[in-house]
Fold:
Amino acid sequence: DAGVTQSPTHLIKTRGQQVTLRCSPKSGHDTVSWYQQALGQGPQFIFQYYEEEERQRGNFPDRFSGHQFPNYSSELNVNALLLGDSALYLCASSLGGVGEQYFGPGTRLTVT
Amino acid sequence: GQQVMQIPQYQHVQEGEDFTTYCNSSTTLSNIQWYKQRPGGHPVFLIQLVKSGEVKKQKRLTFQFGEAKKNSSLHITATQTTDVGTYFCAGGGNTGFQKLVFGTGTRLLVSP
Structure:
């Protein structure tokens, strides 16, 4: 039973560039949430997708957008990267958007 | 917006000593979850509490949800070196889709 997978593992981008991160949920899960975790801090909720629609959104600018595909996998897109976007981006899946969140290993994004 | 604070920020104990972390929310929660994140790892779900005053135990770990559903605690009895990591509480709101607000975390270091 595959858990949550994310790609890529690490990524280095330059300010102003755009990035796409990918996530495949745990088998049987239909909801994907994205979190940003800066060094030494707790994960910050970005948004959540269910049935290919954004259901909840945290306090992040429109530069952060996402998508969910019919197979429940998801992408996180960040435009016009800033140095402050450097963080670990975590994807978590769940069933119906409630209860236990299964986290993936994360994508470490460095913006230079 | 909703804020979730944890104390202490950091604790260093000798193996065999007890450990407690406290979690306080600025708003009433519908539920609270606890996660453990090992250094370099991703958050791993420990437990969810839903009822006011609820107490749950997992071996050496005891979790409590306050009567007002605004605070929670995690107590570890007789710590082991395998307990090392950062413990996060995460508060869930009252909407159908879980928008988890993570606490600031408590980093636990256990010396043998």
